[in-house]
Amino acid sequence: MKKAISRQQSLFRLAAVTIMMLLLTGIAGCNGLLNKNPLNTVGNSQNLPNAAVFISKQAPATVSMLVNPNRFDVLSGGIKLSKLKESLLDNTGLEYKKDVQPWLENEITLAVTTDDIDRDKANGKQPGYLTVLGTKDASLSREFIELLFSKRVLTGTSLVVEQYKGVKLISDIPQTGDIDKPLAATVVGDNFVLFANDIKILREAINNLQAPGLSLASLDNYQQAIKQLNDKTQAITFLNLPSVAKWQGFNLSSPLTYNTQLISLIPKSSGLFAETSLFANSSIPAAKNLSEEVEALSYIPVDSGLVIAGRDLSNLNNSNLALLWQQITAAISGESGEDISSQITKPLANLETRWGINLQEDIFSLVKEEYAIALLPNNKNKTPDWVFVAKKSSTNPSDSLHLDEIASKNGLTVSPIDLNEQTISAWTQLTTIGNKASDLSIQAKVLGAHTTIADYDIFTSSIEAMDKSLNKQDNFFKDNRSFKDSIAAIPQPNQGYVYIDWDKSRNYIESQLPILKFAEIIGKPFLDKLQSFTISSYDSNQKLLKAGVFFLLNE
Question: How many helices (H) and strands (E) does the chain have?
């Protein structure tokens, strides 16, 4: 059981970090639970997390699985749940199939209830952990608890039994042997089994149940988020973000924009959809929706590994996407995140030096219509090529990109070239080769290319990338089957999306954004099935931001 507790602590950290990346989202049926006799009425209804009635509204993190582990589809084939089930009972002499499966019902909830059980800084921090299991047979559940504690007594613990507000609590105190962590457990009514790493956590859980105003189920943001859950949701996580920061020991330099977050996992026929709802402390800016058909994608090559599409770059650093990114980096690292333009457009960052431009002033501030940015493989070196497509302003034609003029002013040679029946501007830097005047030769290094087609400006890092953008004989990205399947899973309308082909972009993404740590967080089996993932935001208002990530999996 020592290993079990250690694994439980790791699981909480894993869940919290996973939810913060994704990159990377009160209980509707709880009103019927909060009756005069709550101990006898607690039970899972409408596939919602009823265990929230045991958890404090100040709890940093709560993770709930809403179906029986024996038919949990979300991680099917991705994680060997059978091995996990058995490993949690290591060194107990008990077996999951024989001792747990007969009574286990459709809800398993894990919660970090507090960052420090006794709130005594002198003895260090000891987080409180609570596990709530749904049971369909309270009698068998009680037999399991008694058997479990009898096994622990044999390995060197001292058993303690007490009655607390009509509930029998069992706990032990390690004395000798291999077990060095206490365990406490109880069965509440006929529906739930509770485990904790300290009996104080069980007492607080009973208090929360009998005084509903204390519980997570009574929190307004939680109730709003739960009401929006899809009826096919198989797992959710709820985060109290200031409490998460405190739990992780972060001293935030500024208040978080969002204070609570709910993430739900919904299986789809072709993959997995993770939706998040973030609740703001104050009003957030309104977002501009993207039309369902993004014509800028008509100029994005089909072999692109990463594509960002949206509308209006002029206010990027104050957009919902920017606020979300800053929230994620602050919550994970405890520091203020970089502004969104420097992070989301890292592949374009060297343009400021190479072309002598200011991305924010010369490009982003003038792009108020739809745009698309793409990275695509470069066979010549490890640095990917890129394509940037921006629609000209329909309301203010003067807001056009004058990059040819800027490039020329900064010493680059702007030369017209015919490519695929289209005249483009090639930006070159001329250098001399040789030591003697008689041996000198001039070499032109291409630093970029630009052209205009209809209402769209197209910029690329190379002539080869421009050739791919203009080659009408190739299929274009918007016709990519993987992309079309992913977009179909994203709610409409939305504020744009980031599409990542995992096979093509994995090495580059992990090198540029190590904060994701996908391989460590999600696990190799899942990544082996991952074809692509798409991130989008939608349904926002002054106090709520909803976003989702769709993971497209190979069959």
Answer: 15, 20
Please tell me the distance from the alpha carbon of residue 526 to that of residue 75, in angstroms, as a whole number: 8
Q: Phi and psi of 299, rounded to 5°?
A: -110, 10
Question: 254 or 57: which carries more pLDDT confidence?
Answer: 57
328-353 per-position pLDDT tens digit:
555 544 444 454 445 445 555 666 66
Phi, psi of 312 (to 5 degrees): 75, 95
Q: Which tens digit of pLDDT belongs to each residue from 266-288?
A: 888 888 898 888 888 777 666 66
Q: Which amino acid is at 385?
A: D
Separation in Å, CA 59 to CA 125, 187, 208, 252, 523: 15, 21, 12, 18, 27
Confidence of residue 143 (pLDDT cuts 50, 70, 90): very high
Give the mean model confidence (pLDDT) for residues 181-201.
92
State the Cα–Cα distance between residues 171 and 488, nearest whole angstrom. Answer: 51
Highest mean pLDDT among 125-129, 165-169, 476-480 belongs to 165-169
166: left (phi over 0), alpha (psi -120 to 50) or beta: left
Class of residue 39 by CB neighbours under 10 A (exposed 0-12, middle 13-18, buried 19+) = middle
* Phi and psi angles of residue 114, each rounded to the nearest 5 degrees, phi first: -160, 155
Q: Could you tell me the pLDDT band of residue 313, with boundaries at 50, 70 and 90?
A: confident
pLDDT digits (tens, 9 = 90+) for 146-160: 999 988 888 778 889
Q: For every residue of 280-347, which 3-state class applies, written as one string?
A: ECCCCCCCCCECCCCHHHHHCECCCCEEEEEECCCCHHHCHHHHHHHHHHHHHHCCCCCCHHHHHCHH
Overall pTM > 0.85: no
Beta strands in 126-226, from DSSP E residues, in sequence order: 128-135, 157-164, 167-174, 183-188, 192-196
Q: Pull the structure tokens for residue 267.
A: 């299986």
Q: Residue 230, SS3?
A: coil
Residue 131 to residues 12, 170, 244, 470: CA-CA distances in angstroms?
11, 15, 18, 57
